[in-house]
Amino acid sequence: MTPANCTMPSPDSSKNSLTKKLFQKLRTTPLHPQWFAVYQEHAMLRSICGNLSGLVLDIGCADAKARQYMPADANYVGIDYFSTATEWYGTRPDVFADALALPLRDDSADHALLLDVLEHLPYLERVCLYSGQIMEFYRAP
Predict the structure, then answer these.
(1) Is 4 domain-assigned?
(2) What is the model's pTM?
């Protein structure tokens, strides 16, 4: 499902692809701009995802990396913006949706993951208020 009101700009695919390949090669070195975050990524994902259960929404899931850290009893649903998933990451999440227009009822989910996504959203406070209506937020210790 792709929301009609999605207005995120499309990246220049050739330039983006080359940049993405370069950063992917540098990902495990201090030369990558987000190296410190990536360096700690596995421990962080194990800590955050390891004890979740019920319906877990990964809003802005990109490559759905969090899925591999979920316990067997968790029902993981990856959600991402159409152009981000298809053009930037080349992935296909479980649901295409805008973080401000999730196709869910109030109190329909147990947990929400918003990993590396909030800084990309124009209306952060609206996303947080809306997400709080439909799910319980997990707060890292």
Answers:
(1) no
(2) 0.68
